[in-house]
Specification:
SKP1/BTB/POZ_sf, 5-stranded antiparallel beta sheet, 15 strands
Length: about 375
Amino acid sequence: MPPAERAAVDLGGTFSASAIVGGTVTGHHLLHIDCYSQTKEELPTGKYIKSCPFSAGGRSWYIKYYPNGDRSSATEFISIYLQLDQSVAQPVKARLRFSLLDQAGESVPSHSRKTPTYDFFTASPAFGYREFIKRAWLEESKYLKDDRFTIRCSVIVTKELCAEERRPVVVPPSNLHRNLGDLLASGEGSDVTFQVLGETFKAHSCVLVAQSPVFKAEVLGAMKESINGSVIQVDDIDADVFRALLKFMYTDTLPDFQDTKKKEEAAMAQHLLVAADRYNLERLKLICEDRLCGHIDTASAASILALAEQHSCRGLKEACFRFLSSPSALNAVMTTDGFDHLTRSCPSVLKELMANIAACVSVDLEQER
């Protein structure tokens, strides 16, 4: 047996490890130009308007949009640049991709351009493209619709090299939501059944009761009346919408809409918003509001505004008002079937809309003076 003193030294030994790590992190920002004609008229060559600040790679940025070019040699073009919006001790290395998007939200290959890596620092110039889009080409293209178009800016930030401790025991993230999703998919242990327009969904009362006070009342009420398990009939929600609703309640996630057309995604968001309001799922309702804010266009603005008014969605309603504050957008929307529906179903919101437009016009006149 070794001496006691030697044993104590051995027991006190430690093991540790570290690694030098780097890599990149990417962020995206969509710049929606909702009133192209107005920006072209009011911002002469060399004048720009900034996007709202956004975060990418742990840094704050903004986009500079020049509708008539940033200098006299580029008056026929739209210029677009990215600016670092914070003070930094060390330069931030980043490369950029600016893309014109089509009506489905996809990049237009002829107008998707990637820069080399630049060093952004506190007083650095903005980087981007002086001749990004020729205005005459844009105005004749299908990408400018109802006086609107969208540019996506992708920022690929190079992370600083640093030492990172490698711990011998790595605790994985929680997989509770995945496990609950598997439970929903398998139907094991289910004690409540929903019949939704010909489709059957098995669920677990404990999950539904915990998530929604409306489900709590419906499920517990049905269980009291049934001895062999409860069956609840749902006739006013589409089966795909109800499936997405259950998935959200179990996993706090929505189905992946990457392969879904923009119009279909907007329709699903509208139906889910109605269902979320019915079952008092406030977080899901806000998620749907947020998604619909990105789908407001001439064809949908009136119907989305009616939806926002009927289901008390203040943020979505304000987004519709902002879109409709443009005279050209309003005139185009007034020719749609959705506007007829809005007129019939929500006459009070029309008065509010007109008052909002009048206020905007008054502010513009004051600024001109």
